[in-house]
Amino acid sequence: MTRYVVRRMLLFVPTLWVIATLTFFLMRLAPGGPFNAEREIPQAARAALAQKYGLDRPLGVQYVTFLARAARLDFGPSYKFPARQVREIILEGFPVSAELGGWALLVALLAGIPLGVIAAQRQNTAADTAVMAAALAGISIPSFVLGPLLVLVFSLGLYWLPPALWEGPQSRVLPVLTLAAAYVAYVARLTRAGMLEVLRQDFIRTARAKGLPERVVVLKHALRLGLLPVLSYLGPAAAAIIMGSLVVEQVFALPGLGRYLVYGAFNRDYTLVMGVVLFYAAFLMALNLLVDLAYAWLDPRVELK
Amino acid sequence: MSVSTSAATVPAAPTSAAAGPPRSLWSDARRRLACNRAAVASAGMLAFVVLACFAAPWWPGLADPAAQDLRLGAALPTITHPFGTDELGRDLLARVLYGGRISLLVGLVGTLVSLLVGVSWGAVAGYAGGKLDEFMMRTVDVLYALPNIFLVILLMVFFSRSLLMLFVALGLVQWLTMARIVRGQVLTLKRQTFVEAARALGAGDRSIVFRHIVPNTLGPVIVYATLTVPAVILQEAFLSFLGLGVQPPDASWGTLIADGARVMALFPWLVVFPGLALSLTLLAFNFMGDGLRDALDPQDKQPGR
After folding, report:
1. Quick count: other Cβ atoms within 10 Å of Cβ B97?
2. DSSP conformation letters of B194-211
C-alpha cells in the first residue's frame, strides 16, 4: 500500500516534466509574444522588457531556469498583471474554482446516484426511459447554452437570483447548477449501468432468497459495488469540471482560475498559462491517486500493485 | 421447463441452432438498430440537419447570411425571418445554417483525424507489444494527465487560430481513448488463428495489422467515433465561445451562441436558436451512438424491444 503510493508519486515527476516541457515549447515557439499585443512599443522599451523577464537569453537557458523555478512552485511574474506573481494569482483564483467545482460535484452525486438507482430498479419501464432520456439531454446541452438560459429565466425573467458575480450564497446557485447539470446526467447513467451489472449477480439473488426486503438488498448490498463505475469516473469528472468551469466562470464573470487561464492564453502570458496548466495537471494526478486508493478500499477484489 | 408458445415470437440468441439462417454481426446489429426508435429518429434528424446546413447556399428563399438590414435591426421571428434577425439585421436562420456547416465540418474532420491517429497508434502498439507498446501507451497515459482542453488551448495559441489548424488540433487531442480501445482489441485479435493463417500465407506485418486485424476492430471503433463527433463539435463550440476557436468573419454555432449570450437580456432569441440547434444535434448524435453501441455489443443479446 505505502509502496504503491510512493511509486505512484514518483511517477508524477516524469509526467509533470513532460507536460512542463510540452507547455514551455508550445508557448515559447508560438508566433507573437506578450509584449506585441495592443499597441506599438518602442524598440528600446521592448528590449528592456525582454531583458527584465529574461526573454533575451537563449531558449535552452530559459527552459532550464523555468524548470528549476517550477520545481520550487515558483512560476515567475505574470506578464500581463505586471505587479503580480503567477503563484499569487493561482492562490487567489483556485479557491473560487474549487468551491464552484466542489459544489457542482456534490450536486452531481446527490442527484445523479438516486436517479440512477431508481432507473436501474425499474429497468425498461417508463420511469427508466424518462430518466435516461433526460440524462442524455443533460449531457447534450452545453454549459454555455444552459448558463445563459438559466440567467434568462431566473435572473432576467423572474428576478430570483443574481445573474453574475461571486458575492453571497445566492450568487452560487446558478453557476453551480449550470456546471453540475451534465455531471448529474453522467453519474445517473453510470450508476444505472453499475447497478444493473450488480443486481444480476448471485449474491444479490442469495440476499433476496433469504427474504431481505428489496430496499435493504439494493441500498446495503448492491449499492456499494454498483457505485464503483461512478467512483472511477470521479477522476475524469474532476478534469471535465475544471474544463467546464472555464466556461461557467466566463458566463457568470466569476474571479476563478479558469478566467485567468483563458485571459492568459489570449494574451500569450506564458508564465501564467504554464503555471495554471502545471498546477491543474498536478492537482488532477493527486486526485486520481486518491480515487484509485478509494477504489481498492471499496472493492476488496482490487489489488494495488 | 416447458416452452411457451410466445417464445416463437422472441428471436432466439444467435448461438442457438434453431434461430434460422445464420446472421452476421452486421445484419444482426442492423436489425437491432432498426428496432431502436430513438436511434432511428436521431439518424433521420441528423440527416435532415446535415442536408439543411450543407445545402444552405441552394435553399430557395433563404437570405444571404452576411446581408445586413440596419433599419430592421434585431427583430423577433417573422415569416420572412423565421429565427428573427441579429443587431445588424442579418437573418438568423441563414446564420445558423451556415454556422452549422462549420460546426459539422469540424466534428467530422476532427473525428477523422482522431480515427487516423488513434487507430494506427493503438493497432501498432497492440501488435508490436514489448518495449514499443510500453512506450506508446505511457505516452498516452501522460497525455491523459493533461485535460485535453488545455492541450487544445495551447495548440490554438501555437497555431494562431486558423480554421484548418482548429480542425487538426481538435482531432489531435481526441485520439487517446480510441488508441486504448483499439489496442485492447488488437491484443486479443492478434492471437487468433486467422492471423496465424495470414502469416503462414506470407503476409507481412503491415498487411496483417491494417488488412486483417484493424477491420475486425471496426465495431467498437464505429461506436466510439459516433460519440467522438459530438464531443469534437462541443469542444469547438466551447473554444469559440471563449473566443479561442472560429474567428470572424467565419461563424459557427459556438460563436453565434457567444454573440447571442452577450445581448441576451435584450434579444433572447439570438442565443435560444443557435443553442437549440447545437443541443439537438448533439442529442441526436448521442442517441445514435448509444443505439449503435447497444446494437453492436454482443454482450447484450437482448432482442430489440
Report:
1. 22
2. HHHHHHHTT--HHHIIII
pTM check: above 0.95:
no
Q: B264 by DSSP, 3-state: which?
A: coil
Q: How confident is the model at residue A148 (pLDDT cuts 50, 70, 90)?
A: confident
Written as nine digits, the cell of B2 is: 416447458
Chain B nearest C-alpha distance from A103 (Å): 20
Amino acid in position B161: R
Q: What angle do CA A218, A222, A227 make, to 5 degrees?
A: 115
Mean pLDDT of chain A: 81
Residue with cell 453557476: A175
Q: What is the rounded distance in angstroms from the CA atom of residue A24 to the CA atom of residue B288?
A: 40
CB contact under 8 A, A142 and B286: no
Cell match 435560444: residue?
B272
State residue B25's pLDDT score.
66
Alpha-carbon Rg for chain A in angstroms: 24
Mutate to test the interface with A, among B150, B172, B239 (most CBs of A within 10 A): B150
- Which of A9, A21, A144 should be substituted to probe chain B, the one whose Cβ sees the most B Cβ atoms within 10 Å? A144
DSSP secondary structure of B34-66 = HH-HHHHHHHHHHHHHHHHHHTGGG-TTPPPTT
Q: How does pLDDT run across B56-85, given as a tens digit for each residue?
A: 777 776 777 777 766 766 667 777 767 777
pLDDT confidence band for B3 (50 / 70 / 90)? very low
For chain A, first and last CA: distance in Å? 8
User: Is pLDDT at B264 greater than 60 in this prediction?
Assistant: yes
* Single-letter amino acid code for the residue at B96: V
Q: Which amino acid is at B269?
A: W
Q: What is the ipTM, given to two decimal places? A: 0.74
DSSP assignments along B9-42, one per residue: GSPPPTTSGGGSS---HHHHHHHHHHH-HHHHHH
